[in-house]
Amino acid sequence: MKSKKKQLEKRDRKAYLEGLKKYEEKGIPLYIDDEPAKAEDMERIFEIQEDGSFYMGDYVGADTGRLKEIRFNKVYYK
Prior knowledge:
Layout: H1 2-25, E1 30-32, E2 35-36, E3 54-61, E4 67-75
Parallel strand pairs: 1-4
Antiparallel strand pairs: 1-2, 3-4
């Protein structure tokens, strides 16, 4: 059972990252910790840090109602 769950998680992560890549290809910038996101850093948005922090996505809209940028910043759960 655990291997099937891991396979599903891996598939879901891959699909999510592919979706983000499509936004980026359409000119919507992605940021991690206020820095432009690099492809090799994208996996870290799924990690829970030792201090309990994790990344939360913020989908920022423009005044026109369209998506302007996507930001991932650390948040702390207390």
